[in-house]
């Protein structure tokens, strides 16, 4: 893929639940290295969109293209999923140690043991959890658990990273520190990212471009400064 080839394109995505439209998206385009933030109130369709883009939910209609390949019923979705990863609000850690969690995605992708160990070590260090490598994941604080989840995601070196409100449940000092670190890492790795949040400070810290969803539809889009210079349609 070239720098001008979108990592992701979506057109006319429609999702209905019980005859109610929860997502009606005209278009979305993400270039390599770009960070697009999706904002909106609870129930606006943000998490539904992330699930559709991550191939966890089938839209009722519309066109989705990932890594220059249109997703159809015949698409090898497993090969596409291996090129991206999702980090949710809940870390969803496995039983076992921090290191085991960070290694898990690398083992699934069949990396040689030495390379997997090297990568896991690097990303545990990047997220400040090397000293927790042998600690049980279920004894971690909320911040440590989300650091582990992020290290696991970055370790596979994804071409597309989907972040679904990963900082929402953290206390303010932990959240602010982790947002700063994540922003730095995203810029250094040039990872194409879609970041879902309802928090304006998070959006300003991480975004190249922003999109505001209300009732499943785009109501504002542009660079963060332009979006925030206008009156947002929700509080």
Quick structural gist:
By secondary structure, the chain is α/β, with parallel strands linked by helices. It has eight helices and ten strands. The N and C termini lie far apart (about 40 Å).
Low-confidence stretches: none
Query: Quaternary arrangement of the chains shown?
Result: single chain
Indicate the mean pLDDT: 93
Side by side, the strands of the main sheet go 6-7-8-3-9-10
If you compute it from the alpha carbons, what radius of gyration comes out, rounded to the nearest whole angstrom?
A: 18 Å
Strand content: 25-35%
Largest sheet: 6 strands, mixed
Explained architecture:
This protein is of the alpha/beta class and 235 residues long. The chain is built from eight helices and ten strands. The strands form two sheets. The chain has a six-stranded mixed sheet, sandwiched between helices. Strands 2-1-4-5 form a four-stranded antiparallel sheet, with helices on one face. α3 runs parallel beside α5. It is globular and about 45 Å long. The mean pLDDT is 93.
Helices and strands in order:
Blueprint: E1 8-17, E2 20-30, E3 35-39, H1 46-53, E4 61-66, E5 69-70, H2 77-81, E6 84-87, H3 98-108, H4 113-126, H5 142-155, E7 160-164, H6 172-189, E8 192-197, H7 200-206, E9 209-214, E10 217-222, H8 224-229
Parallel strand pairs: 3-8, 3-9, 6-7, 7-8
Antiparallel strand pairs: 1-2, 1-4, 4-5, 9-10
Helix pairs in contact: 3-4, 3-5, 4-5
